[in-house]
Amino acid sequence: MLRYTVERLRNHIKRMHKKIILTGDRPTGPLHLGHYVGSLKQRVSLQHTHSQYIMIADVQALTDNFEHPDKIRANIIEVALDYCAVGIDPHVSTIFVQSYVPEIAELSVYFLNLVTVNRLMRNPTVKAEIEQKQFGPSVPVGFLVYPVHQAADIAIVKGEVVPVGADQLPMIEQYNEVVRAFNRIYNTQLFPEAEALVPAKAARLPGIDGKAKMSKSLGNAIYLSDSAEQVQQKVMKMYTDPQHVRVSDPGQVEGNIVFTYLDVFDPYPDEVAQLKEQYQKGGLGDVALKRRLIDVLNSFLEPIRARRATYAADRAAVYELLKEGTAKVCAVADETIHSVKEAMQINYW
Ligand code: TRP
User: Fold this and answer.
1) Residue 158, exposed/middle/buried by CB under 10 A (0-12, 13-18, 19+)?
2) What is the arithmetic mean of pLDDT over 267-281?
3) Is the CB of 107 under 6 A from ligand 1?
4) Each residue of 102-114: pLDDT tens digit?
């Protein structure tokens, strides 16, 4: 009887426990439609079923922007505004700023002992970035170890689910290695392993130039904060089918970015299917097609712009929200560090 009650109670507690999400973005620029499709949309719905922490990763952004702290500073608020604009509710999700949680840096130092330089050099994401940034042999230590820092980001709130793009999978793998080592060496179960939540392949939005990824550095992004005119100009420049010269020419739908975007954003897929047919047969011009996409994107972005404007009208209040979120995380971080020190037996008094 007693055992039955305990069992039921345990199951009840399990059901009540909302899984902890930790995710974040580097504040190196405003967020774009690619971010929306790949992660922000998911966060808006996950915030109701999970306990969600969203981190503005300024310390990580500094690892390859340390000469430009002004850029990071300016983008903290832009990213926060983008979050609020898309419907991440700062009273439901906890939005915080990485550098204001010093326990993350502290935990990173303890984690650094558990990872070898070789292992970091083998991290495929780090490897690709080192090449891309042309560091050569002069890789800054801070950059090389950012995956360890990122492990501390997750561990500090004992994150269980980490929604990330596919390029971040090696980071989660590395996270699990670090916490497994920590738990084993210090004989504890303090840190649960984390599970990556990778959006479906379709959730990767190509840039307006047709390149595989929409990205700030490639200059091919439509930002959530772009005006209606900016959206219009960008769509007009969009990559379609270079063989489709005259309206009457038959056109390619595959790889035609305008259709890719319509597939994602147009609320009337039946009509899009008809347009595709017409385009393939010939008789539908790029300009007409682009006009539709401009309308679709602007109707989608309109409520986002409106919400952004409301928050942007009182920036001090947005900083206040960040401060509140950060204070909440600091309280959790303090507890975690306390347990870490206990497990490591470095709590001397
Ligand atoms: N590295 C991530 C990116 O570039 C941002 C990030 C920092 C992050 N810390 C994190 C993501 C912790 C998930 C969990 O997008």
Assistant:
1) middle
2) 95
3) no
4) 999 999 999 999 9
